[in-house]
Amino acid sequence: MSDVINAAVAALNEKMDGGFDGGTAKFVLNGEGAIMVDSNGARPGDEEADVTLTADTDVFQEMLSGETNPTTAFMTGKLSVDGNMGLAMQLGAALA
Description:
By secondary structure, this protein is α+β, with helices and mostly antiparallel strands. The chain has helices at 3-16, 57-65, 70-75, 85-95, and strands at 25-29, 33-38, 41-44, 51-55, 79-83. The chain has a five-stranded mixed sheet. The radius of gyration is 12 Å and the shape is globular.
C-alpha cells in the first residue's frame, strides 16, 4: 500500500474518531488507490460502497487539512461523487 494511502487512512481515523455511521464510503485517490470508510473507521480497500468520492491526492489532502471545503471541491469539479449524494454530504460534514 502506498505511503499516501496509509497517511490518509491515519488522518481520516483521527478526524472521524471511531468511524462513520452513515453508511459505507470509498475515497479513490487518483494514481494511489482507494480507502474505505464505515462504522469501523477508515482502512485501505476497494470494495462496493454506498458512495464513491474521487479526487486527486492534493485535493484530498487539502480537504483533510481544512484548506479546501469538500462542497467547494465538488462544485468546482475537483471532487466527483458517484452514488448517495446525501451520504457524501454527511461525510463532508464529518471531515470539516
